[in-house]
Design brief:
The protein has about 400 residues and is an alpha/beta fold. Helix content is about 50%, strand content about 10%. Strands 1, 2, 3, 4, 5, 8, 9 and 10 form an eight-stranded mixed sheet that branches. A two-stranded antiparallel ribbon has the order 6-7. Helix 2 runs antiparallel to helix 11, helix 5 packs across helix 8 and helix 12 packs across helix 16.
Length: about 400
């Protein structure tokens, strides 16, 4: 029995994601498991729909099981995000191959780049330091230091692919990698239309474009139905009133920005550098919302995405100096009922906690694992409370929510 793994955000799940699941089956996978970002995603924003909705959509569209990683890792830099996911896959101890999309589609070139970055030869380190000293952002300095891989390091899915392979090398992962060339619109493309490619199931638009469509036009229109598989579209339409955005955290962030007048206070949080802390103090009087403030903080040496991640870490209280910073805990969100043998195998072989019954499983964790999972429950409850307040729907505490089981 071969098991394929997919690392994803599914924010939201679309036709391109379904294509990746299908490619995993074509590559010989009997089971497809997904390790998915929970209620917060790598750019530092809340997911448009909560983790249970997105996980159920994935299972209804071909995945067998969906697990989540904590927000501490799902909102991290590409390197840390990728490494946390690879650690989780190694810990689950059931994966035969990891399959991922990339703009390149060339696994050999991606792996060559990953090899250099994993080994960090002296020549590369010198060029990288030089670029950083000249005020370049880390992504630009790294691409300049590796001109032979500059094209690869320009696209977001390629960058994540490189980071997956780099982590697999460093951690001696016991599974293989397979890449599929990304179909349809690019990651950054905000438009939706036939020009961006058709497959048998509809338009392959980017998740960014679909989020814009949901924001501007909702989910009850032909464009939305063409970009999202029908099995997921119904779920998303029902969840539309609860959709979330970065601005929903503006009041919480505003309070956090005025919790101290000392720059050192802000550098305690993940991704907040000395420079960024100073910029936060200098600019907070002009704060009008999360998105606009992240744009205001961005500079030549600091990307807007970095600023957004740092701000969300401040809002969520995610600090660097914690004893559980590198622990692994994963939570089962959704399961196809005929995939229960896969779950039994994972539970018998996993070297990391697999949370199914939250309160009971929490009691069986080590102290550090329990602190990490408790932090995740706090953050998920915050997301859920804001979601309930925005939609007028009842709030359900995370500890009372269970695995979504989908009939085969």
């Amino acid at each position: 029995m071969k098991t394929a793994a997919i690392i994803a955000e599914f924010n939201p799940l679309h036709n391109g994601h379904v294509y990746l699941i299908e490619q995993a089956r074509e590559a010989g996978a009997d089971h497809v498991l997904v390790v998915m970002s929970g209620n917060f995603v790598q750019r530092g924003e809340p997911a448009v729909f909560d983790k249970y909705v997105r996980a159920e959509a994935a299972v209804r569209c071909g995945a067998d099981a969906v697990f989540s990683i904590p927000a501490r890792f799902s909102t991290a830099s590409a390197e840390r995000y990728a490494d946390a996911n690879i650690r989780a896959l190694i810990g689950l101890n059931c994966v035969d191959f990891l399959i991922f999309g990339s703009e390149s589609g060339n696994l050999k070139t991606i792996d060559q780049c990953a090899k250099v970055l994993a080994e960090e030869p002296e020549d590369y380190r010198i060029k990288l330091r030089d670029g950083l000293k000249r005020g370049l952002s880390f992504p630009k300095a790294r691409a300049e230091a590796l001109p032979e891989f500059a094209e690869i390091l320009r696209e977001p899915n390629n960058i994540l692919a490189v980071e997956y392979l780099k982590s697999m090398r460093r951690r001696h992962a016991g599974f293989e990698a397979l890449t599929v060339r990304r179909k349809g619109a690019s990651y950054h493309e905000k438009l939706i239309g036939e020009d961006f490619g058709q497959d048998g199931s509809g338009i392959c638009a980017s998740a960014s474009a679909i989020r814009e469509l949901i924001k501007n036009s909702g989910t009850d229109n032909a464009e939305f139905r063409n970009t999202v598989p029908s099995e997921a579209a119904d779920l998303f339409r029902r969840a539309a009133e609860k959709r979330m955005a970065a601005e929903d955290f503006s009041a919480i962030l505003a309070a956090a920005l005025f919790s101290s007048d000392e720059a050192d206070h802000f550098t305690e949080f993940e991704d907040v550098t000395d420079e960024l802390a100073r910029r936060i103090l200098a600019g907070r009087n002009h704060f009008s919302g999360v998105q606009s403030f992240s744009e205001q903080l961005a500079s030549k040496s600091l990307t807007e995405s970095h600023a957004m991640r740092a701000l969300m870490h401040i809002a969520l209280g995610l600090k660097k100096d914690v004893p559980y910073r590198d622990e692994s805990v994963t939570e089962l969100l959704a399961l196809r009922k005929d995939a229960e043998p896969l779950l039994k195998r994972i539970c018998s072989q996993s070297s990391i906690p697999v949370v199914i019954r939250k309160k009971a499983d929490l009691r069986n964790m080590s102290e550090n694992e329990a602190m990490l999972f408790s932090e995740e429950m706090r953050i998920s409850n915050l997301y859920g409370m804001l979601e309930a307040m925005k939609s007028g729907m009842p709030f359900v505490n995370e500890y009372e929510r269970g695995v979504v089981k989908v009939k085969a």
